[in-house]
Amino acid sequence: MSALTEFLFPAPAPRSVDAIVGWWERRRLFFNLSVGGAGLLSFSAITVVASLATGEIVVPWQGAVLFGVMANVCYLLGPVVEILVHQVWGRTVLPIGPALYRMGLTFSVGLALLPTLLAGFLVVARVVLSLLG
């Protein structure tokens, strides 16, 4: 198996609070790098589009910092939910950590890239309007 496959489809953590928290924390760096990289791409795209539109360099760094903090706060929900599911249903439910992690990572990267998509639509709309008008 490739390293990416092993990372995205790992064996679940043993069913204890310490093991679950450790399992999630071992993946936090990759999560932060992935979401941060996507956020940096969006930040750059928004800065370029805003600079072209206004003629001055605009750096909206406050939103990027807030997004990074909120992404890590939401990341904490992963082990909390997994521990709660284990506490409520015990071993009658299969471990949900790997699936929660993949869904959270996918959603977070997509959300971080959303401003790039919106900036692209804005650029296309401006070009079309300038050609028509």
Describe the fold and architecture:
The chain is mainly α. It is built from five helices and no strands. Helix 2 packs antiparallel against helix 3, helix 2 runs antiparallel to helix 4 and helix 2 runs parallel beside helix 5. The longest helix is centred in the first third of the chain and has 38 residues. It is elongated. The mean pLDDT is 88.
Essential attributes:
133 residues; mainly alpha
Terminal residue distance: 55 Å
- H/E series, N to C? HHHHH
From the spread of the alpha carbons, the general shape counts as elongated
Taking all Cα atoms into account, the compactness measure Rg is 20 Å
Largest sheet: none
The proportion of strand residues reads under 5%
Which structural class is indicated by helix and strand composition? mainly alpha
Helix content: over 70%
| Tally of alpha and pi helices | 5
Quote the average pLDDT.
Answer: 88
Low-confidence stretches: none
Say how many strands there are: 0
Secondary structure elements and pairings:
Blueprint: H1 3-8, H2 17-54, H3 61-75, H4 77-89, H5 97-132
Helix pairs in contact: 2-3, 2-4, 2-5
Offer a quick outline of the entry.
By secondary structure, the protein is mostly helical. It contains 5 helices and no strands.
